[in-house]
TrEMBL record:
GO terms for cellular component: cytoplasm. This is Gluconokinase. Keywords: ATP-binding, Gluconate utilization, Kinase, Nucleotide-binding, Transferase. Belongs to the gluconokinase GntK/GntV family. InterPro entries: P-loop_NTPase, Therm_gnt_kin. Pathway: Carbohydrate acid metabolism. SUPFAM superfamilies: P-loop containing nucleoside triphosphate hydrolases. Its EC number is 2.7.1.12.
Amino acid sequence: MNHPITALVIMGVAGCGKTCVSEALCQLSGATAIEGDSFHPAANIEKMSAGIPLNDEDRAGWLDSLCDELRRIDALGQRPVLTCSALKHIYRERLRSALPGLGFVFLELTPEVAAERVSHRPGHFMPATLIESQFATLESPKGEPLTLALNASIHSVDELAVQAHLWWLEHGLKRAS
């Protein structure tokens, strides 16, 4: 490993618990949460709301905005924790290029559990009908450097956050001064 992990991306398909785990992890670690969904341009939100999956072109500007925000939070001396689906290897590499030492926590779950969770999520633009396309796009990060895979189907949010926090501590999390 060239760099200690100084920032994290909580990644996975819709419904895996990225936001909940990020919030719990930030409470444990004193890190700063970045909600990736809030950086989607209106066109992406409209497309997903209509049940149309995003493509690489749709995600390009969004990923650039996330890279900028990771660098901005890091430059403030804070430890960022970004929620982002990061479904493809090329997306993860784009995010890694923004910040040396960026680690990934992959929240795995089954398509059935994801669909069930998303169908009961109030007020979100991502319909359960897009779950299948997310799994079709997903390139598992297992085996990539600085990546921890956790089963989000069987662990509670708190358990996932604690596991991610301990892993981060082991791989370079610096305590706030």
